[in-house]
Amino acid sequence: MADLQKLMDELSALSVLEAAELVKMLEEKWGVSAAAPVAAVAVAGAGPAAAAEPVEEQTEFDVIIKDAGPKKIETIKVIRQLTNLGLVEAKNMAETPDSKVLSAVSKQVAADAKEKLVAAGAVVEVK
């Protein structure tokens, strides 16, 4: 049996991008989805409103930097923490409007990244 503590420690050391890639790989290998299923319940004999298609909730979000803000160095540091990019790549991302800092991440990861970037002074959008 695998050493579960060691496995947990290794998973905890993954960056956000590495964790997202791991999720995709496991979904493909096991043929499952990590997204919460959306269930629609149809009541027999109900009106046409019950037969309407359920609106699919967005499960993947992109974190887009609009402006690095007045504290560009702080913003670059946060970008490096979130992405594991090098200094030059993170600087270029911070200086390029509409750069995707993270793409196809969960709502929680996107919200956390936005919070950190905004705290550093950046203008951020989550789509």
List keywords for this structure.
single chain, 127 residues, alpha+beta, Ribosomal Protein L30, Chain: A, 3-stranded antiparallel β-sheet, 46% helix, globular
Overview of the structural elements:
With 127 residues, this protein is an alpha+beta fold. The protein has a domain of 66 residues: Ribosomal Protein L30, Chain: A, CATH 3.30.1390. The protein contains five helices and three strands, in the order ααβααβαβ. The protein has a three-stranded antiparallel sheet, covered by helices on one side. Helix 3 packs across helix 4 and helix 3 runs antiparallel to helix 5. It is globular and about 45 Å long. 18% of the residues are buried. About 7% of the residues have low confidence.
Could you tell me the radius of gyration in angstroms?
19 Å
Order of helices and strands: HHEHHEHE
Count of distinct strands = 3
Strand order of the largest sheet: 2-1-3
In the CATH hierarchy, what is the class of the domain at 61-126?
Alpha Beta
CATH superfamily of the domain at 61-126: Ribosomal protein L7/L12, C-terminal domain/Adaptor protein ClpS
> What general outline do the C-alpha atoms trace?
globular
CATH fold label of the domain at 61-126: Ribosomal Protein L30, Chain: A
Helix proportion range: 40-55%
User: From the helix content, strand content and strand pairing, which structural class follows?
Assistant: alpha+beta
* Alpha plus pi helix count: 5
Sequence stretches where pLDDT stays below 50 over 5 or more residues: 37-45
Average pLDDT confidence is 79
Question: Which CATH architecture of the domain at 61-126 would you pick?
Answer: 2-Layer Sandwich
Largest sheet: 3 strands, antiparallel
Bin the strand percentage: 5-15%
